[in-house]
Specification:
Length: 174
């Protein structure tokens, strides 16, 4: 008969549960930040976030031979680096969310103007921004007749989101 009392938790699991847990937390935080970076700073500037995820995976392999205290220290340092990446992406993510809400309101305003006047307005002078601080991140182009185009960006105007009255929503990452 098997004596289960002599089979204890594997040493590797017991020894590295905290460091691997911290590294897993880092990955769980960096992956959404990486996805968000694609929409806020673009495809090319998103690369450092992907590089950081790979670095986390490599560091997980490198801490295996370290004593437990050193492994925990390495994981804590990695977590601190992870935390430094977050505030910027959170701020940019909030700006993106606010811009999308603002542009949806602009599109509603323009659709109502097209429905009542039969043509898109020449500018946004009759629209009052709910968030005036975002006005510099939005451009409007009347395309003649009922057609218009609204472009918006989070950081750089070359990395833009848009709404086109003929084709709908779009995004160009770089």
């Amino acid at each position: 008969m098997l004596d289960f009392a002599k089979y204890k938790t594997p040493l590797v699991l017991k020894r590295y549960l905290v460091p691997f847990g911290l590294l897993a937390l880092c990955v769980a935080v960096v992956l959404p930040a990486t996805a968000l970076a694609f929409h806020t700073v673009g495809e090319v500037r998103q690369f450092p976030y992907f590089f950081f995820v790979v670095l986390l995976m490599v560091s997980a392999m490198l801490i295996l031979p370290l004593p437990r205290q050193s492994a925990v220290f390495a994981a804590v340092v990695t977590l601190l680096f992870t935390v430094t990446l977050l505030p910027v992406q959170v701020q940019l993510g909030v700006r993106l969310y606010r811009l999308k809400a603002e542009v949806r309101a602009i599109v509603d305003h323009l659709d109502n103007a097209v429905a009542s006047d039969g043509a898109a307005p020449k500018d946004l002078s009759k629209y009052t921004f709910a968030s005036p601080d975002l006005q510099d991140h939005v451009r409007y182009y009347a395309r003649g007749g009922r057609h218009y185009y609204v472009s918006f960006w989070v950081v750089d105007s070359h990395i833009s989101h848009w709404y086109d009255s003929t084709s709908g929503w779009g995004y160009y990452p770089d």
